[in-house]
Fold this protein.
Amino acid sequence: MNEVYILTGGNIGPRMKYLQNAKKEIKTRCGKILQQSSVYETAAWGNEEQNAFLNQVLKVETQFNAGELLNAILKIEEDLGRKRELKYGPRTIDIDIIFFNCEKIDHPGLKIPHPQMQNRRFVLIPLNEIAPEKIHPVLKKTVSQLLAECPDPLPVNKFN
């Protein structure tokens, strides 16, 4: 079995419903959800002229290899109405693989650990909630250390 950390997020439509649907589909299609962070609300990153995002990190146990997991996630995004029209643009759901075991993967279309995670508080804050001691396999720092050093100024707040 493989241990995976996945970030879900979205900022179009009923945001919480999309997160819940993504979680349900990940459980059904990908594997067992072992842990989940709180849901956080964050101002849009990259393209700031859009609605705030809701984000959540899931720890998942899966039998899939990284490529199979990516294919399953892309299908879930598509089935939940994800359109890839604008980089950093609005979306119903975005699902990213943050960590896959302790592996370093660098293939076209699949880079693990997520190459920008250390620069994004909306990834690190929910990840830190459930895995503060997880070590980044490239940077050799814990999630907690990465969060303390993160240059991202955007506020990330728990969503009620």
Summary: Helices lie at 15-29, 66-79, 121-130, 143-149. The beta strands are 2-10, 31-36, 40-42, 53-62, 94-100, 105-107, 110-112, 156-158. The mean pLDDT is 93.
